[in-house]
Amino acid sequence: MSEKHFISFSAIGKDKPGVLFEISKIITAHKGNVEFQKIHTLGSEFSILLFISIPNEAQARELLSALKKIEHSDLVIRSNHSKEITVEDRKSTRLNS
Fold this sequence. Notes:
Elements: E1 3-14, H1 19-29, E2 33-42, E3 45-54, H2 57-68, E4 76-86, H3 87-92
Antiparallel strand pairs: 1-3, 1-4, 2-3
């Protein structure tokens, strides 16, 4: 049985060059995988919502810490580490068509 940990991450703020690159670089460096993403821009503002999977709890804590340190003063960042979810749990919670 394969266990994964999940992080939900959102940020809202001024759309500046390099912001998305910095977020992506941090996720990759901590061995995170973006399972779902939504990015929107409106004029000079942007919002991003990511659902990130990560192999274990220690890596999830490290990734959360790194994401919270992103150095863009006008960004509002929210992130949360979800409880452990097994692959079987994910399959059983999907809606049937």
